[in-house]
Amino acid sequence: MERFAFLLDRLSLTPGRNDKLRLMADYFAHAPDPDRGWALGALTGTLDFRSAKPAQVRTLAEERHDPVLFRWSHDYVGDLAETVSLIWQARAGANRPPELNEIVERLQDAPRAQVPGLLEGWLDALDTTGRWALLKFITGGLRVGVSERLAKTALAEFGNCAVGEIEEVWHGLAPPYETLFAWLEGQGARPEPDRSAAFRPLMLAHPLEEREVESLQLESFAVEWKWDGIRVQLVAYDGKARLFSRTGEEISHSFPDVLEGVNFEGVLDGELLVVRDGEVAPFNDLQQRLNRKSVTAAGLRKHPAHIRLYDLLFEGDEDLRDLSFTERRRRLEDWYAHHRPPRMDLSPLVVADGMDSLARLRAEARQQSLEGLMLKRRDSSYVAGRPRGLWYKWKRDPLSLDAVLMYAQRGHGKRSSFYSDYTFGAWTEAGELVPVGKAYSGYTDEELKKLDKWVRDNTVERFGPVRAVAPGLVFEVVFDAVQPSTRHKSGLAMRFPRISRIRWDKPAEEADRLETLQKLVEG
Amino acid sequence: MPRSELLPENWLYVTDQGLYCAPGDFHVDPHRAVPRALVTHGHADHARPGHDKVLATAETLAIMRSRYKDKAGREWQVLAYGEVIQIGEVRVRLVPAGHVLGSAQAVLEHRGQRIVVSGDYKRREDPTCAPFEPVPCDVFITEATFGLPVFRHPDPDREVAKLLNSLRLFPERTHVVGVYALGKAQRMIALLRRAGYDAPIYIHGALQQLCELYRAHGVELGELRPATASQKEEMTGALVLAPPSAIADRWARRLSEPVIAMASGWMQVRQRARQRGVEMPLVISDHADWDELTRSFADVGAPEIWVTHGNEEALIHYAQQQGLRARALSLIGRGDEEQEAV
Ligand SMILES: [Zn+2]
Ligand SMILES: [Zn+2]
Q: Which value does ipTM take for this structure?
């Protein structure tokens, strides 16, 4: 427990990604089985103790301490686990601190009524950090700045393999992951992935650079539209269908509508979209369905989900990934003609007789639902990761706007002493500036230093980590699209804004007007 | 006037300038300039510039002079710990508060009543100042900076050990510790020296003067060097002390891959540490924690407690549970040293 508590404590206070990876990999290398597997479960959110709930912890703390003082303390600290860990007055004569495995086993076996007693004993035996870690562990939601993906990356670092290999076996496994650790340490066989739950790492594309366009042999490539949704993998076996995001996180629970119609077995690659009457809705609509805790009937009706299929990885048990794109595409088309699952269709191939006409198509692809074109080598097999020279994405040219810097915020980690996050605005009819977007990238380190100095020299007001500046600096901002939004005062939201140039020379009054941006809204 | 009719709040109360002792015609730690001020200690939220006459310990007066120069007050009167003087109808005595060098509790007696204005205080051992002395009284006026039972400061030596351990583990990184310029900086250095750390310690310019002042009052600090930008190489793997406002700011760019630490009682709350980008919170405080506050109530045996800055309501609730009379005394401009300009 002490080791796990130390790990959580350090993770929660260490801002750097690489340092977090090192801490986790180090923990996996030194903590024993099965403790490290339970810890991995906690880090990736696969543990669930039904019997221990935050409300119980609160009740316990209120029984042992003045409830008024407890409530005020909780209001002040914010986090329940932390409040209890700090306020807890341990009784003398407690047992030795428990190990993770002991906690898991006893909680699994204990009848509900005995859980508070167990907890009390453990809280008495642990120190402050230990109590905090225990409560985080059993109530879930660690909030130490570690995503499922980051934990798996650390595991890959520990096992000296690619994170894709972990992902491939991951969904068939459960805590405490003893077979997984054994395999990673070279002590055991590769765990057999559960075919109904296994995510296969996706094949990704490189951006097509302008200088490569000339030399590209178009006849070797199949061309598709690049749809503006989220890339997904659909896995269907044994009457169960699951949807995974690009990074292997399962998102099935948010999209029961697309999974309902699954009438086949296999693994498919496609783009998740919201489609109404055959028309792809703006990305914003899909956003309404993502990251929602519960799926509501209204949500399903207003934002119906749909998968536009790109590729077929498995048909039944047959692995097609080693076939060429041309072959897989043929199989996909046949397969589709046979099953015709509802809420799914094929992403059509684009025909162009040369790079010039393709460039024209790309330039005209101003519809919101398109991000550009995909070029896939006809002879390419389906290779996990981002292999060179096989797939290209050729995004349409970004839109651009000259905007005025309004607010700057301190960055994180290495950038924490710099004002590196910028909110910029455009002029209204009335000569007011309204914020239209935020960018954190697109400048060099040298430019960042100059920007930071400019911000400090031109500050008119401070709010915590944010500084408001006098209107005087113009950014040329580029972005992929702009959409109506109710969340912003300007009524607009940019997609992927970044700074392309700092216009030190341009007077702020000459920056663009809000109207200009409004005209760029499509659809 | 019969004794039963004299209430403590009739002779010690809050005016626009701060806490006022009517029968002596002076203020205690007033936040605005007044004709006569008794100052408990040198922190800027207690010691303000511009008073006409100032009464304090010699150390506190020295701190005020180093800070405010010619604005430190027109006339200074030194009152040593334990010495008694009569001001108007009030007997005044200063007693160590254990907070920072020269910090004192003001013991005020009038017509058989005794009120102790404790200023800021702590009960932990501190090699840089005299320890808190509990004085039995009728009314005890206490701060409440850490007036919630979640604040329980660990042993400072253990926190220092944590820092030294990290220095050994990461010799390629500069460890920078955020400390308040008055009190915390010197205590931190003294604790490090006591733990056997004898390498030079690099300090931010804002700490220089007060470290000199502590030395002049006999506090051993060992070798201190200025943390200037030209010493990036030399400071690699060393310890650097700087005011909290500097550690996450431009100033810190002169350090190589710094480990950002901060020594403060606030560091007990993880979220506070995270907000400030602190990687290594060191829970070392010059204010009393919950146990020290509540223990002091018992030690002074006062039937009545007045609570000033911090989390007053929790402390008042606690005191009332103990059968004491307790109320809040709202003083303007009082707060944590964190707010003080460095
Ligand atoms: Zn103070
Ligand atoms: Zn104070």
A: 0.91
Q: Calculate how far, in angstroms, residue B275's C-alpha sits from the geometric centre of ligand 2.
A: 23
Residue type, A465: P
Q: Distance from the CA of A73 to the center of ligand 2, in angstroms?
A: 21
CA distance B1 to B12: 17
Question: Which of A18, A72, A409, A450 to mutate against chain B (most B CBs within 10 Å)?
Answer: A72
Q: Which of A244, A243, A237 is nearest to A264 (CA)?
A: A237
Cα angle B249, B255, B259; round to 5: 80
The answer to whether the CB of A14 falls within 8 A of the CB of B279 is yes
**Judgement on whether residues B266 and B298 belong to the same structural domain of the protein:** no
**Contacting residues for A439 by C-beta, under 8 A, at least 6 apart:** A421, A422, A424, A475, A477, A497, A498, A499
Domains by residue range for chain A, with CATH: 2-139 (1.10.3260.10), 206-395 (3.30.470.30), 399-518 (2.40.50.140)
Tell me the one-letter amino acid at A306. Answer: H
Taking the Cβ of residue A68 and every Cβ of chain B, the question of whether any pair is shorter than 8 Å is answered with yes
For the question of residue A302 being annotated catalytic, the response is no
Asked if A517 has any chain B CB less than 8 Å from its own CB, the reply is: no
Residue B151 with chain A: CB contacts under 8 Å: 86
- We report the CATH number of the domain holding residue B300 as 3.60.15.10
Angle value at C-alpha B61, between B56 and B63, nearest 5 degrees: 130
Where in the sequence is the domain holding B260, given as residue range(s)?
156-282
Compute the nearest-CA separation of A15 from chain B (Å).
8
| Residues in Cβ contact with A392 at an 8 Å cutoff, skipping those fewer than 6 apart | A205, A206, A207, A208, A212, A216, A221, A374, A375, A376
| Catalytic annotation, pick one of A20, A136, A152, A226 | A226
pTM listed for this prediction = 0.74
**A304-353 tens-digit pLDDT:** 999 999 999 999 989 999 999 999 999 999 999 999 999 999 999 999 88
